[in-house]
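Re: duplicated header lines in exported structure tokens

Our pipeline writes sequence and tokens for each protein into one text file. With two proteins the header for the second block appears twice in some exports. Here is an export where it did not happen, for reference. First protein block:
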Amino acid sequence: MTQTSHKKASAAAKKTEAAPAKKRTPAAKAKSTKGERSLVYFTGLRARSAKENKAQKVQDLFDAAGFASRIPQSALTAVKVHVGERGNDTFMNPVLVRAAVDKIKAAGGKPFLTDTNTLYNGCRHNAVDHMQLALEHGFCEPVAGAPFIVADGLRGRCYEKVSIRKKHFPTVKIASAIADAQAMLVLSHFKGHELAGFGGAIKNLAMGCSPSEGKCAQHATKFYVAEDICVGCGHCIAHCPQHAIAFVKKKNRKVASIDPKLCVGCGECLTVCRPKAVSLNWKTELVPFTERMVEYALGAVTGKEQHIGYISFLMNITPDCDCASWSDAPLVPDIGILASTDPVALDKACLDLVNSSEGFAHSLLRSGHAKGGDKFKGAWDYTMGNVQISYAEEIGLGRSAYELVTL
């Protein structure tokens, strides 16, 4: 491992890293791109003046990463966001989104906020409900500075096929508004995820830029219900988009049962099941699921790699995706905001910073509380989030070696 660490990284993490992060002049920043490490820019959250507020920090990161040069004049620029779910309150702050939108406008781009409809039944399953929720959460022009467009259309059927020729997919389906955009800024709230291990830039590209058919193709995972654990609450039945779950009678009681012929593997039943009766074969299913997801991320950037920038927010680092209709307590304290032109390096830096933090005692963490502990495995011990990084590097999405530059 060759990446440098944030100056507050744990001693254990520092043993595997080259040198502490350091400030650079603009000229030094330009020269450093010649090495084998990708630059990741970092800013902490301390502020004692208007020049240090979070919106200003986002704009400083935009400038430091050189995003303006990636936006052609008058380019229709997708600002990839996640508007959260009704009941969730730890989604990305639209006021901070506006700071990035203003920079895109100043660079000559024409920004629009965008996301895709969900596979599961919820507040974003179709464009009408999705746009209403986006408005409720502030992802609209009066607050965030740009209109919100659902990238895959009314029912998630608008997409373009993109050739990638990889192990799992020769082509992938990317939402039309994202495929047609001339530039893109990917804004991600970095947090945990029960299937993917964590959700950052890679997952935002993959699940976030694909229509319903693309999401089905990525999941393609079959779940089952452990009858001895099921309490018959019916939450999984209510949330299943394919009506693949029904009650059956077992030993004089009703339990849920998943029809494998109807299941599309979206994993919503896994998320909403309170007693954790829903499961899958973690040893055989997670790696191919993650690889499929990473291949979709590659498809989302293919053809415009030089016109994309990435900003990730290490704030409200919860164990669950923002698709959940709740917000659990964060696993670690807020850390900062990061930016890069390399989504793999960015995710790796975010992951390292999370793991080098002290975990909260009163959180979902069951292990890994100490600095250097694997926080997301501490919450979901069966996940393999590291596969996102290793496979993304293998197929050329980016590199895992990075240099962290503190502004």
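Second protein block, exported in the same file:
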Amino acid sequence: LGKRKTAIARYRLIGVRDPIFREYFFYLTNIPQDKLSASEIAQTYAARWWVELLFKEMKQSYRLEQMPSRKQHIVESLLYASILTLIVSRRIMQVIRKKLSENNRRLSEQRFAFVISAVAIQMLIIMVQRSIHTKMMLCHVSATILKEVVDPNASRHGLIQSVETRTHCYNAQRCSKYGL
């Protein structure tokens, strides 16, 4: 019926020892050794994971998954809107981190994105509308954000922090080993 083809693919198995946990993290890649070193491969995979997390945040909180069109120019516009929303959200988060300096480490990007998306309509109304209620709305939205963005689970590692510190767990045994 069909012809069978054989192809040879070469892969590198790389082990990079983590100085904190003193164990190896393994990567399988087809990138040649003369292109990227083992540590550069590990950094590349970490950067790729950051991109995945940003898209996850944009899908969950900034409606990236709700593309109402198949037309490329509309989808691109909505993608840019989602990226701009992410950038503005992160800038607001920086301001709030300074304001809540004692609870700074209890602000996760995921929780913040969820809270900001919940009050986004009110924020837009405040920016666009000039009325006697605007100041009251601003006070209410600000108080809501300041109260809700602080994660009540301070001891739990957030996903991004787990990736940064390489404490993300591959199995339950490893999680319990490190108290996660």
